[in-house]
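WARN  no MSA supplied for this record, continuing single-sequence
INFO  ligand: PLA
INFO  echoing inputs
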Amino acid sequence: MSDSVFCQIAQAPEDPILGVTVAYNKDPDSSKLNLGVGAYRTEEGKPLVLNVVRQAEQKLVNDPTRIKEYLPIVGLADFNKASAKLIFGADSPAIQEKRVATVQCLSGSGSLRVGGEFLARHYHQKTIYIPDPTWGNHPKIFTFAGLSVKTYRYYDPSTRGLHFKGLLEDLGNAASGSIVLLHACAHNPTGVDPTIDQWEEIRQLVRSKQLLPFFDSAYQGFASGSLEADAKPVRMFAADGGECFTAQSFAKNMGLYGERVGALSIVCKTSDVASRVESQLKLVIRPMYSSPPLHGACIVSTILNDSNLYNEWTIELKGMADRIISMRTQLLEALQAKGTPGDWSHIIKQIGMFTFTGLNAEQVGFMRKEYHVYMTSDGRISMAGLSTKTIPHLANAMHAAVTSMA
Ligand code: PLA
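INFO  complex generated
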């Protein structure tokens, strides 16, 4: 047999986030803890399928009129309408004036990718500014979509807070028209969000410089427990009449990770432009994956369009957010009780799924080797993967990492 035509191919590295799970799965130790990927776990450490999702699925299987035909290129119409309402608000003028083009995409990632490629094809500015740091997939998604990626200052390690001055300076110096990626809430990986007053300043700068805002909304409801509060920054931008892109994910807030359900919404200045934008989005989507998957969109649409299920969902969502918040308090108390050196108050100040601990790559490596605690090398831990039972183990590991290799 001759050599494979691929014999020269190099072994690719694992993904910095999803690769953590690969390593965790190979570890035979029974005390191991996976705090890498942001996936919600119950107090028992189990993945959670929401009750409302089970009910919606039951409704769907019991309905014999449901068929499995292809969806249109833009996805399920009822899902698109309800998704736009969820992020922009039921009374949004942009929706009432039919100025929003919404297309169902493959979760948050797919929505970012479709939006990025649309911009690369049709927008005069090809540069997108992303925060430093940001979700590790952002630079790759936008580069492969055909945009050129630059960063703006976001996080200040010395205060473990927002680098607001740096943010304003960097966006102030961006070329007019540049695209700006903004995390709608629960910034990943830092857990640091601007205040509402700071958002207003950012909005004024973005509009005065004619920058184009592109929101990544992957955690609506997870930051504060309230869908409305977490959508506030996006609504401030949509309300001023200017253009705005939003990529929405239902992975976390409905626990539909593997169903890959999300939406891209583009707020335009007129309904005529919105309908032409939608026609061009179809030309981006059709050669990429033709049309989106059916099942997840039906689940979301069933929940969002039924007031009982919707109300039940908000309660379950609040339950998840509250459990994460209580993990923050418990972890802080555990470290304080051990007398772990350093100020750990950022654990309760940060919001969303993650704590950006400030642990360095060496300490992260130590915790993995000695304590079988898995997290990303930037020191991010998924609070949603913790439970009252596992907090002592994490606190022991952090204490040992900090005291033995400060
Ligand atoms: N945007 C942000 C800011 C995210 O954190 C994630 C997921 C996505 C988009 C994409 O999610 P979706 O495509 O599944 O809707 N971030 C996770 C998972 C939770 C991942 O890396 O894929 C994370 O652990 O950071």
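The pocket of PLA is lined by residues 17, 37-38, 107-109, 135, 137, 183, 188, 216, 218, 249, 251, 257, 262 (CB under 6 Å).
INFO  checksum written, moving to next record
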